[in-house]
Amino acid sequence: MATFIYRTVSGLVASRNDQYCFFNSDWDSLFQGDGLRDSLAALSIVDDESARTAVENELLPPIGAQEVWASGVTYYSSRLARMEESQSAGGADFYARVYNADRPELFFKSIAQRVRGHGQTVRVREDSAWDVPEPELTLAISDKGQIIGYTIGNDMSSRSIEGENPLYLPQAKSYEGATGIGPGLCILDTPIAKETGIRLSINRSDSVVFEGQTSLKEMKRELEELAAYLYRELSFSNGCYLMTGTGIVPGTEFTLQSGDEIAIEIDNLGRLFQTVE
Q: Which domains does the chain have, with CATH numbers?
């Protein structure tokens, strides 16, 4: 069974079995110790139409004081795409090595203030010529390093900048409007299944210009492994989010344009919809 927690203008909302109610809790406390588990154990959802309306009309990104981090080259398809884009710069071997290495690639993605939620806009850099969304399962991790929930992530990326030189990764990945998560935080009774499907579709002028799909079973890394590496030498007093990499990468012939509509769906987590400014 899945329980969702949403941030809205009117407050936190909990949802289960298509019923909605306001949730009397502080967002950041959910990421501290057993705060989320304790809150949900005492929660009885009595359907409240005003709570449903808040989710439909007042949705905010599901983030408080959390940082957003990301993982790279966790799928074979991502390895191939990164090698292709960086070949002329002599960086292809780096991506092949990190895919096979014990240590994963982890990098800082965004502070909370730069995160865009469901129904909001994301951006491509003005100095980039090749840009794509990257649909990613995103882990919600407590201050103790435990995976407490999941959400959908959109890791907007400049392939032209990253391909020019791997050292430009922070500029390719971290800029205003480059991070999307939502629509809410999903808590499952059991760890998310390997068979979980991930789908990406991009519409332009009412036509589908790209579609792709993958599943978590295509990911080389274990989710707990990624979380453990992130917390090796870092502490997060308010927890954090960790994007787990993408297995869907549009080809060299595709780049995002202003007005494109990005829809990312992950089984049991819902749909994250965003438009390119």
A: 2-60 (no CATH), 68-276 (3.90.850.10)
